[in-house]
Design goal:
This protein is mostly helical. The protein is 37% helix and 8% strand. It is built from 5 helices and 4 strands. It has helices spanning 20-27, 33-41, 47-54, 58-70, 91-110, and strands at 74-77, 86-89, 120-121, 128-129. The strands form 2 sheets. It has a two-stranded antiparallel ribbon with strand order 1-2. Strands 3-4 form a two-stranded antiparallel ribbon. Helix 2 (33-41) crosses helix 3 (47-54) and helix 2 crosses helix 5 (91-110). The chain is globular. The mean pLDDT is 85.
Length: 156
């Protein structure tokens, strides 16, 4: 992202622009939210399962689950008799899962030596896949330094 060319006053008092990326980062700007989404995406849905998979303190986990539910990333899961039983990802949460897939690829490349890797199988073809960020227009993979930033709502 070194091609960012917006000119701003250098000041500690300058607040970052509120663009869609800033909004997205704010949705997961704490230590636990992506871990929770990962746990639910991998099949944990009961509070105790999420607690075990994430390892957050109970009060923190409860707070983050509430935040993720209020923001529309998680929703209550009620499999029996309409009673609350746990959590599941909404469409918004499943879409956030794509971000986790790209982070997984980064972790596979730069993670700790000896850390176990998880393979993802594409259910359509049955093969292991690696998440790739591609241009929607031409289909080619995007690499760092191969794009520029343009704010659609303002002149840079």
């Amino acid at each position: 992202m070194s091609n960012y060319t917006q000119h701003t006053r250098p000041s500690l008092e300058t607040k970052p622009n509120r663009d869609s990326l800033a909004v997205a980062l704010d949705a997961i700007n704490d230590r636990w939210s992506l871990h929770i989404v990962r746990a639910v995406a991998f099949g944990a849905w009961r509070y105790t399962d999420i607690l075990r998979d994430v390892g957050a303190p109970r009060d923190v986990l409860s707070s983050r689950l509430r935040k993720l539910t209020e923001s529309g990333i998680l929703q209550p899961h009620a499999p029996e008799k309409g009673r609350f039983a746990g959590y599941e990802l909404t469409q918004k949460g499943r879409d956030l899962g794509q971000v986790i897939l790209v982070l997984k690829r980064w972790g596979d490349t730069y993670g700790e030596d000896g850390a176990p890797q998880v393979d993802f199988i594409h259910d359509v073809c049955g093969e292991v896949f690696v998440a790739e960020v591609c241009c929607q227009a031409c289909g080619k993979p995007i690499r760092s330094g191969e794009f520029s930033v343009h704010h659609a709502s303002q002149e840079c």
